[in-house]
Amino acid sequence: MAADEGASFHGPSLADFFPAPILFEGTIFEFNRITLVRIIATAVLVLLFWLASRNARLVPTRGQSLGELAIDFVRSNIAEESLGKELGRKYAPLLIVIFFGVLTMNITGIIPFLNIAGSSVIGLPLIFAIIAYVAFIAAGIKAHHGGGRFLKSQLFPPGVPWPVYILLTPIEFFSTFILRPLTLTVRLMANMLAGHLLLVLCFAATSFFFFEMASALSVVGVVTFAAGFAFTILELFIAFLQAYIFALLTAVYIQLSVEAH
Prior knowledge:
mainly alpha; 6 helices; 71% helix; 0% strand; globular
């Protein structure tokens, strides 16, 4: 397939995730497009929940009903389902913040003029993973009344012959204290990064075939546009799914930390 003279296709690259600074270049306060997207997403999330709860009534308004329904979804289907009624209600606020925080940052990837997920660069997924990490360690220490007892419960499972601990304890340490936050971070970032690359590839190809190639090849642009639309729907589903998985795994890790108590 030959392009028109001078026409060239420029696909997406990892450079998309390292945009030029807008303010404070070269400092620790460097401000770029992804940071701006994160601030906008956070402001919109806070605004939506404020609007839903500012005039709470016994007979809820439509906005209040939607807000309560969203919160109840996390409380019932993640917190209480994984942790039980008592513990679930205790950790529901944390899980609600994690779920909607991750979801909001994920969904910016398909919003026009934002067009990149705030969670597609490792910094933000890592922050959420550290929050989950601190939460399940703190829950375990509190449940076992001390850090020593918590470590014993995690690293020395009962009912195992003591020579097995020589092999089992390092594995448990790596799995619990290193692999958990690492997998939370990488899973979220990798999914959102891949989604962005697919969407940009499809819509960049659509623009290329519609406006830069010979008219006979415009039909290929129709195909890439349809693929881009399909991937947009898929990316919306993945945004919800990754938020759900992140919050659910946080709840599971909390449960694993306290269950031996």
